[in-house]
Automatic annotation (TrEMBL):
Pfam families: Tn7_Tnp_TnsA_C (PF08721), Tn7_TnsA-like_N (PF08722)
InterPro entries recorded: TnsA_C (IPR014832), TnsA_N (IPR014833), tRNA_endonuc-like_dom_sf (IPR011856)
TnsA endonuclease N-terminal domain segment(s): 50-130
Name assigned to this protein: TnsA endonuclease N terminal
GO terms assigned for molecular function: nucleic acid binding
Domain TnsA endonuclease C-terminal residues, every copy: 139-220
Native species: Tenacibaculum mesophilum
Length: 233
């Protein structure tokens, strides 16, 4: 019988660490807690990974014996479920490379218990380091952090209270224009619509919103700019 992870088993109290906090997640329609900036950056990667279906922080308790034979409790950082039904769910621990080296003996016992638990439950255990999260994804991470400012912008507006209306006509226009030409840049496409500075600023903001929400595609492995090429998949 497959395990079902719906609720974190441990709450992260933000007041105990200046590096802890929470992020609003589109994947799970809830807030996600983190207790380090490295975990926060990993959450950004998960949020913008189209292969990830959902995830949960602090998902399960794993019990093991330490080197003195005393029972200990270990809580991994995340569990991840993918859209690909043939891909195993992953239990993930986030650690700095320095921490892995300095606390190797202590951590090895935890990780051995985690691997045994995962093997019994048809899961995969992974350790993700600052090299995996930041060094190997530096440009991508910078891009999605930039897009994160735009992704949920219109969702946060109380339209009923403010009386504002989200006019979708320009969003549709941008998407249609992007669909017509696969060689357009953000700058060149918007220039075909208007030369007015204020309207251009509005359309640039809207374009980043559309890119952040996958309505319009862009190569996020290259530095984002107004000269970035865009297209509709």
């Amino acid at each position: 019988m497959a395990l079902i992870f719906k609720k974190r088993v441990r709450e992260i109290n933000c007041k105990y660490s200046s590096l802890s906090g929470q992020i609003s997640s589109r994947k799970i329609n809830d807030t996600v807690q983190f207790e380090s900036s490295l975990e926060r950056d990993f959450i950004y990667l998960l949020e913008f990974d189209t292969q990830v279906k959902r995830y949960l922080e602090q998902p399960i308790e794993i019990f093991y014996k330490d080197s003195f034979g005393v029972y200990r409790k270990y809580i991994p950082d995340f569990i991840i479920t993918y859209h690909d039904k043939f891909r195993k769910d992953e239990v993930v621990e986030i650690k700095y490379v320095k921490d892995l080296r300095e606390n190797k003996n202590q951590l090895d016992l935890k990780f051995k218990a985690a691997r045994e638990f995962c093997k019994k439950n048809n899961l995969l255990f992974k350790i993700c380091t600052d090299k995996d999260i930041r060094d190997d994804n530096a440009l991508f991470l910078n891009n999605i952090k930039f897009l994160g400012r735009y992704r949920d912008y219109f969702d946060k507006i109380d339209y009923k209270a403010t009386g504002l209306v989200f006019d979708t006509s320009y969003a549709v226009m941008l998407m249609n224009k992007a669909s017509e030409s696969r060689n357009s840049t953000i700058n060149s496409l918007i220039s075909t619509i208007t030369k007015d500075k204020n309207k251009r600023a509005e359309l640039i903001f809207l374009m980043w919103y559309l890119v952040a929400n996958n309505f319009i595609s862009c190569d996020l492995r290259r530095r984002l700019s107004l000269d970035s090429k865009i297209w509709i998949d």
